[in-house]
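Late entry, evening session. Most of the bench is empty. Finally got around to the prediction I had been postponing all week. Sequence below, unchanged from the version circulated by S.P.
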Amino acid sequence: MKKNLFFMMLLLPAMAMQSYAQTRKADPALLRKADETLQFAARQYKLMMTHVPDSVLPRTTNTKNGSLVTSKSNWWTSGFYPGTTWYLYEYTKDPAFKAEAIKRMELVKKEQYNTHTHDLGFMMYCPFGNALRITGDTAYQSILLTSARSLVTRFNPTVGCIKSWDHGTWKFPVIIDNMMNLELLTWATRVSGDKQFEKIARTHANTTMKNHFRPDYSSYHVIDYDPATGAVLAKKTHQGAADSSAWSRGQAWGLYGYTLMYRDTKDKAYLQQARHIADYILNNPNMPADLIPYWDFNAPGIPNALRDVSAAAVTASALLELSRYTKNADGKRYWAAAEKMLTNLCSPAYLAKEGENNDFILMHSVGSLPHDSEVDVPLTYADYYFVEALMRYKEWTK
């Protein structure tokens, strides 16, 4: 028991209560709605368990015929479904969710050796990190440490970043999404004592802070580097409206990434960066009144452009955590914004009807509009961060 407690303390998850973090006053109506929505989510995912073939993971919905789209374990979203089922097990204590999570993790486990992707944080930490945190079973630790070792093989010390993609015409592309995978590395240092993992995470975060952000703290999507010199070759987008635009989920990844880096390192530069990104998002003149952002803050056709619910879910979860590290009026403002986002995500405008939506929880996300891929559909990671945000709201209120 003491051994398990020791490793759970080392894990230091976002869900844990930290001594330096603040609780916030709850909105009783939202607390009730959070419970109702989590109960609904559990019922939806009970249906999903019966509909997803045993050899694959749920991903989204086919825009042409409405059928379920699944993925193999090497797709970047493979860890979200078992991660969400762990959250639902934590909420319901229903052993069926635990069994489902373990079953699907068996499919993903081999990706711990995958050195051809930067997404190992998503793929491995979301399910296996939650499994370790919730169960205390240290068997998951070695899988995560192997995953961290695989991830750091993609680090180039000359560039100061972990390479994101091996495809395309890029020399050494780094995307803002990569900030989300650093949590695996900070965890690995806490557990193993090897400071190199956190050093790489910090170096990547610092290089990204230097090159990915404009003066207004909006983010480019892709920075291409010269791997031999570390020089910036190009500042581009891949999923946004334009190279100069602010792709909304990219802003959310940055916000969440720097918030978690502050949590894990206590480096105030990361807290300041997270606050700047939050202020850019919340003060943006193109942010809709319900705080569910357009797929790009500079999307053509605003106010008739599509929303991206996945960006809202990631942002809401990040704002809840950022609020806990931010005092006075700003902290309350971040918390209130997250509450408004969650309230609206729980509404019929974005929440699916029971038994519909291929059993996903949320509707109206956008994967990559420029590629006509996953447009105005449910997405597995939107569900993950939405459930995480609801769980955080219940955990962090007084």
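Two things to note before I forget:
The longest helix spans residues 28-51.
The domain at 2-395 is CATH 1.50.10.10 (Glycosyltransferase).
Will write this up properly tomorrow.
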